[in-house]
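Lab meeting, action items carried over

1. Structure of the two-component assembly. Owner: GW. Status: complete.
Input record:
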Amino acid sequence: MAHSPLAQFEIKPLVPMEIAGHDVSFTNSSLFMVAIVVLLTLFMNVGMRRAALVPGRWQSMIEMLYEFVADMITGTAGHEGRKYFPFIFTLFTFVLCANLLGLVPYAFTVTSHIIVTFALAATVFLGVTAIGFIKHGAHFLKLFVPSGVPPVMLLILVPIEVISYLTRPVSLSVRLFANMMAGHTMLKVFAGFVVALGAFGVLPLLFVIAFTGLELLVALLQAYVFAVLSCIYLNDALHLH
Amino acid sequence: MPQLNPDSFLPQLFWLAITFVTLYFVMARISLPRVSRIREQRANRIRGDLDEAGAMKAQADSARAAYEAALAEAKAKAQALGLTTREAIKADAEARRKAVNDKIAADAERATAAIEAAKQQALAEVRDIAADAARDIVAKVAGLKLDEATVRAAVDAELKQLAGGK
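Predicted assembly:
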């Protein structure tokens, strides 16, 4: 096969664009980002066009999604977290839709690029840090000082806490990106075996089918993990221990 | 690895920013308020229905309480009525019984008096008959002609003795 398993992650410009000498081309990645926005907008609005007190199927799905994210926020960040509901909802649905859309054959997975997941994680990180400082001022730095610890231990613990805080966006973004990339690469590799093995190709085919199911789970789970961790970070900023 | 090609970073970041911000505003301004509005309406409706049900239940409870009070009152009234009626009947019966008793007593007294009178009369007649018989017997047996007074005295004495001896 001419394509390497990594060829699916190639960024291909569709409409070359430039702003002030910088390349901002509309690429296959951009196309899928726009598709995510369009799909989510349609899903969330067409289903609510005839909003009824007793919901239909579509409206029920929307409300379940709404309730799921709302419960996730109040469960981790408490009632004050409700203020950031639209952002967490957008984040969760965007990542979820990107992950699921990526499972469609020949589709591009937006979240399989570290720069995208890192940008999202960095937004969460910077936003949460800003919220913490706005809400608590310099007291927010107490987050790095565990309570009830002898002062000598703080010499070791404070740097550890600071490092763990600073690595949050890295771990958050790498987790999602690595899961997406590994899964899709694996699928591609085994899909290649199907053709290469001829009649025995049925074995890798069965594996690919089963693995697609697992990837579906991973897509849902990673979107959930991304959103839940964002909520937990938000909780740290809202409620100092 | 295409992910590490720095040339692809800027276009991705640029379009990510545009699409994510667009999605955020669509969700925050249009979609989510719609969902929360309908959920709010539903919650209000349910609360309203529950309130209404609660009010109806209170109404039913008060109606039942009123019914029970009326029932108790009626029962008490009926009992009182029964009691007074029984008392009245008892008093009436007592009065009648008394009247009948009195009448019987009076009748008995009168009868006793009549019997007494009859007895006296009979006794007097017995004396006359005894006196006549005694006089006739004396005239026949002894040939004596006794006067009325003597015979009477003798019969009386004899009768008294009989009465005394008895």
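2. GW to write a short summary for the group page. Key points so far: The two ends of chain B are 161 Å apart (CA to CA). Chain B has two helices and no strands.
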